[in-house]
Design goal:
Blueprint lengths: L1 E18 L18 E23 L2 E14 L26 E2 L6 E10 L14 E10 L7 E2 L22 E2 L6 E6 L3 E3 L4 E2 L19 E15 L2 E10 L13 E2 L22 H4 L12 E9 L1
Parallel strand pairs: 7-14
Antiparallel strand pairs: 1-2, 2-3, 3-4, 3-5, 5-6, 6-12, 8-11, 9-10, 12-13, 13-15
Length: 310
């Protein structure tokens, strides 16, 4: 069976974090009696649009399974109510210009393909007795494009030097994006960095960067899991199953998002800053999820199982 459809949603009056007492470029706040004033305001919105297609098959010459493909776009002003671990998911660069925060959601995944296929192996006449039947092959393929990188500068210059150490962006200043220069290195490695520092410029003192929120996407992901199972009926109500399971069968390297705190390679006056690597990757997705070795995106894992049913 083949299905195709549109799925969408719209969110209004969503909660976001902002600074109601944001200072000016000289570090002077509207209310000098207070510093940063956390406000959770219901001023954000979101939209989600997707084309979703799926195909299912049941017991066709021993094959059963499904495939699905989703082409989608998720946009919002803040992807979380507050910034857990300084994740840049909610606090804006400029609390007085929230419109500039509209962009891809931190979880925006433009393309995702999934396929799960089971195959009941026909009886193998060359094998003796109960070894000749009860074999099944199972596989799951997952492929998806990368998600946005929350990029900010490592040296916040959104305020002039001031004795209060107040910055307009509260260390959420984004860099300027230099036109015509690819922000992603063509020959990137986790150690040398995913981002091209020469594509970013440090904003002038007292200004904000022009890079859009979540405008640059990280590396994609693909994974193949496979299992082989043999079921044997020992007695009428006693069944034994032996399984061999291979997660990330080809040991394909997948990477978590790069470090989004960067030192731009170009100074405000256009000279080179001499910045080193940008967007270094130090984790695989399973480690970033807090589930090393067992979560999706880790190295190959092989496990064997035995189940007795009665």
């Amino acid at each position: 069976a083949f299905q195709v459809g549109y799925v969408g949603s719209k969110g209004t009056r969503l909660t976001r974090l902002l600074d109601a007492n944001q200072p000016n470029p000289f570090g002077i706040r509207p209310n000098p009696n207070f510093s940063f004033e956390d406000v959770l305001a219901t001023v954000s919105s979101s939209t989600y649009h997707s084309l979703q297609a799926s195909f299912r098959s049941q017991n066709w010459h021993g094959f059963s399974g499904f495939t699905s493909y989703i082409f989608s776009k998720s946009l919002d002003d803040a992807s979380d109510g507050i910034d857990f671990n300084f994740a840049s998911a909610a606090l804006p660069q400029n609390s007085f210009n929230l419109h500039a925060e509209h962009g891809p959601s931190t979880f925006d995944t433009r393309h995702r393909f999934t396929a799960a296929l089971d195959y009941a192996v026909p009886e193998i006449n060359r094998l003796p007795g109960k070894l000749s039947q009860g074999w099944t092959l199972n596989s799951i393929v997952s492929v998806q494009s990368g998600r946005p990188i929350p990029i900010i500068t490592s040296n916040d210059t959104s305020a002039f030097f001031n004795p209060f150490f107040n910055t307009q962006s509260n260390f959420h200043q984004r860099p300027n994006l230099i036109p015509g220069v690819s922000p992603v290195l063509s020959n990137w490695t986790p150690a040398t960095g995913y981002l091209n520092p020469l594509a970013f410029q440090q904003p002038a003192d007292g200004t904000f960067g022009n890079l859009g929120r979540d405008a640059i996407f990280g590396p994609g992901y693909w994974d193949l899991d496979f299992s082989l199972a043999k079921s044997t009926q020992i007695y009428e109500r006693l069944n034994l199953q032996i399984r061999a399971e291979f997660f990330n069968l080809f040991n394909h390297p997948n990477f978590a998002l790069p470090n989004g705190t960067i030192n731009p390679g170009v100074n405000p006056d256009g000279t080179l800053s001499g910045a080193g690597f940008a967007g270094v990757i130090t984790q695989t997705p399973d480690v970033a999820q807090g589930n090393p070795g067992l979560g999706g995106g880790g190295p190959r894992v092989i496990q064997f199982g035995l189940r007795l049913s009665f």
